[in-house]
Amino acid sequence: MSTKAKIRSFFGPQRQYAVAGASNNPSKFGFKITNWYVGHDISVIPINPKEQEILGQTVIHNVSTILDHIEKGQDLSGYKLSNVDGLSISFLTPPSITATTLKEIASHDNYQKLIKGLWFQPGSYDATVLETADKIGLFEKVVQEDECILVRGEEGLYSSNL
Fold first, then answer.
1. pLDDT digits (tens, 9 = 90+) for 112-129
2. Which range marks the domain in which residue 53 is found?
3. How far apart are the C-alpha atoms of 69 and 43, rounded to whole Å?
4. Residues with Cβ < 8 Å from 35, sequence gap 6 or more?
5. Among 8, 26, 31, 65, which is least packed by CB within 10 angstroms?
């Protein structure tokens, strides 16, 4: 699948989005990318083990909690997860944390059905991360190659009719 097709499939009208490595620090990309979603009025769940709220959004501390609620069709902390078709995640974590999060995702039943897209922002991945994504069968859903949602996200939104 081409990068353009992967970007298009990352977005969807019934999709829930999450930012792994979301931050309250305006100088960090974890803040800027969370702000991009908020600014586009897109439901985004910041994932950060230490924060409680980022840009007015309730923080969830791990991706497993989100996947559990999507699978059960249950809302979570004000997020309407009962009607979503799956989860697309933007990663801003160091590669070692990204790889650990991918393994956490793979430990969840039905993860291949629930995960719709993985956007590895520049600096969030290395060869080990890409091998892990391939090993767990999600590589076809990965946007990488130094693609940034701040640059290519508009294209994906437009092509998905959001």
1. 999 999 999 999 999 999
2. 3-160
3. 15
4. 55
5. 26
Number of domains present in the structure of the chain: 1
With b for 16 or more beta-carbon neighbours within 10 A and e for fewer, the 31-68 pattern comes to bbbbbbbbeeeebbbbbbeebeebbebebbeebeebbb
**CATH assignment of the domain containing 57:** 3.40.50.720
Span 32-87, pLDDT tens digits: 999 999 999 999 999 999 999 999 999 999 999 999 999 999 999 999 999 999 99
Per DSSP bridges, beta strands 53-54 and 57-58 are antiparallel
Inter-CA distances, 99 with 20, 28, 29, 106, 133, Å = 12, 20, 19, 11, 8
Radius of gyration of the chain (CA): 14
The order of strands in the sheet holding 115-120 is 44-47, 15-20, 86-91, 115-120, 142-143
Is the pTM higher than 0.90?
A: yes
Beta bridge partners of 26: none
Which two structure tokens, joined as six digits, stand for 132? Answer: 């892990």
